[in-house]
Amino acid sequence: GAGVSQSPRYKVAKRGQDVALRCDPISGHVSLFWYQQALGQGPEFLTYFQNEAQLDKSGLPSDRFFAERPEGSVSTLKIQRTQQEDSAVYLCASSLGGGPGANVLTFGAGSRLTVL
Amino acid sequence: AQSVTQLGSHVSVSEGALVLLRCNYSSSVPPYLFWYVQYPNQGLQLLLKYTTGATLVKGINGFEAEFKKSETSFHLTKPSAHMSDAAEYFCAVSEDGTASKLTFGTGTRLQVTL
Hints:
The complex is a heterodimer.
Chain A: E1 5-7, E2 10-13, E3 19-24, E4 31-37, E5 44-50, E6 53-56, E7 65-68, E8 75-79, E9 88-95, E10 106-107, E11 111-115
Parallel strand pairs in A: 2-11
Antiparallel strand pairs in A: 1-3, 3-8, 4-5, 4-9, 5-6, 7-8, 9-10, 9-11
Chain B: E1 3-5, E2 10-14, E3 19-21, E4 24-26, E5 32-38, E6 44-50, E7 56-58, E8 64-68, E9 73-78, E10 87-94, E11 103-104, E12 108-113
């Protein structure tokens, strides 16, 4: 597609529910990133994929967070047993990968999660 | 570890006035530096980037930034503000140019008044 598409745009969950957030990157983009943006803060790195391989998950805040990209295209970020502190905007970004010149991240509009 | 500090969470300028948004970074290796803009309910959009070479970088919408290694700064400027520039601006640093794992600052909200 023309841009990075994320769904749902808004999600309200009760504490303890599981949620799944979807990211459709730009076609052909090798690299895919997930960031978490809390209210009034800058985005913080969660995890990174190169094709289907999850190369870095150092930013995932707990084992309740899980991300996958099984076919190297669409990615899903899953949060189990949601807590109020999980409330944030979850941003997905993709890039061509490769050398520095190709590594401009294109961001989606984000999925805003509110946990009640 | 890398970090970014943006001085001033809110900046207000008059239309037509100079825009100056400050960014200082900390990095153990030569950094790659970026400025992104975020409009309400939209994703982050790249304004400009510094990787290597010329230290004065020009971006979209008339913005530019200068990499000053001695000051560890990468301030964003625009000679004349326009109402449409009102948005949130984020400075970011990457130490790994091949992976683009970015560390962002906390952002500066730019308000443009008549």
